[in-house]
Amino acid sequence: MNEKDIENMIEKKNLILIGPPGSGKGTFTQELKQFHYESISTGNLLRENLAANSFIGQECKDFINSGKLVPDKLIFKLIHEKIKRTLREKTPFVLDGFPQSIIQYHYLLRLLEKEDMKGRCCFLEFIIDDEKAINQMISRLFCLKCHQIYNNVTCPPLKRNTCDKCQCKLVRRSTDNRDDAIKRLKVYRKETKPILALAKKNFEILKINSNFGYNVQLYINFIFHILCTSNNNPENYYDKI
Predict the structure, then answer these.
(1) Which residues contact 52 (CB under 8 A, 6 or more apart)?
(2) Average of per-residue pLDDT across 203-227
(3) Which helix (DSSP H) or strand (DSSP E) does residue 64 occupy?
(4) Structure pTM?
């Protein structure tokens, strides 16, 4: 099949990403833009509001700086209208950074059921060893303007500290240090990972082993096999591509 065929298949599924920080969810989201996915990233929404020093950004700032999850009521404000607009327009979306808690999961489930979209969504679980996730986090750079993500080790910019796309200066998040990375992994295991036990009752869950790296073609092939193959066990997908 050609790229257009793959694109048509992909547009039938909305993707909800879950995995530890540093596992490659942001990279995955970026590569799906070529298939006209609407990226819904709570991280980007939060950073935009922080940069704009908006009222909700000020409310979120203390939680982010301490490595804690932003309270649910603030997250709901950030994404509620964007998710509903995407569903109304029937645009395929990739959801990165939400849900992060059991309460957020139930909110999302109710929203998808209300819009009759639950059957068109699946979860992608990203798996990565703690030490590799930490190394990814402390090596990350991102562009404030276009939100492109780089990594000094695995995918550095062509020009030092400069975005390849918009030529803006790249920055490092203040929380991308080893101590905060360890805290964030603990929060993920305590608050976010338990979602998977509930999600498997309502959604298909497919896995990507990010320990193998961030090869773009592997990502695209993975999505292609998810949507075009029905007889394989999704538990083993990340070992086959």
Answers:
(1) none
(2) 69
(3) helix 55-65
(4) 0.78
